[in-house]
Structure formats: structure tokens, C-alpha cells
Amino acid sequence: MWLPVSDPEFFARISPWFMAMPHSRTLGLQLLAASKGKVVLGLPFRDVLIGNPATRILHGGVVTSLIDTCSAASIFTLFDKLEAVATLDLRIDYLRPACPDATLYCEAECYRLTDNIAFTRATAYQDDPGRPVAHGVATFARTPVPAAIAEAL
Question: pTM for this structure?
């Protein structure tokens, strides 16, 4: 079920920053949907993201970055003020190669949020979410950001 993000005004301010981070920009990540605890990102195929020129398969690090970024973004849908999140643990099961010339999508969900840790799960897929390219689970540390820094952003 897709519910509105916890604080739409906060998320509207923070989501462009998230997509403007250097690795997000370099990869070409796009925020496609967001709701309370969930985010969908898209990664359009580009030749520069190929890991093996003979097969034209996306580099595994690209899939990892998509899952990690989407997972972190899902946490921000639950916040009403700026916090720092850092990946503590990320486990990915690569189920099949991503097909060349097709957009790779990732849907991530923050399914548990404690005072110090956020727990996420994610699925990367192309045309059919029922045929995933990879599954990921991650934990993130939450760190408060001093008010002066948060207000400057």
C-alpha cells in the first residue's frame, strides 16, 4: 500500500539533493515514486555503465549503487528532519544479469526504523518485478545532524 511520505514538504526539499549527489548524477538515477517507507528509482541503460563489453551486461557495482541509494532514500520518506544515514551492512543476491538496453528499476522499503538503525529491503528489476535482477537487504546507522547544519541545507 502506497501512503504519502511522512513529511511531504521535507521530502520535497531533500529528494532533489539526494538525486544530485555525485554518484547519483553520474549513474543517471531518477526518482520515480515515493511513499511512506518506499521509493522507486530508475536507472536508464547507457553504454558507459557496461561491465563486460562482450555481453553488454551492466556492471555489478552499478546494481549495487542503485540498491544502496534506493534503500537509503526509502529511509528519508519516514523523516521529518535531516539526519545522516550510513550503510552499515548491505547484502545483495544477484539473481540474473540485467539485460542490455533496458532501464533497471529498484523498489526499496524501510520496513523497520529504530532510534539508531534503519532496516531496508530492495528489489532491482527491469520489465517485470516478478523477474528480479537482484534482491538486497541493508542496515543503516542514523545520526542526528546539528540544527545549524540542517538549516543551512
Answer: 0.93
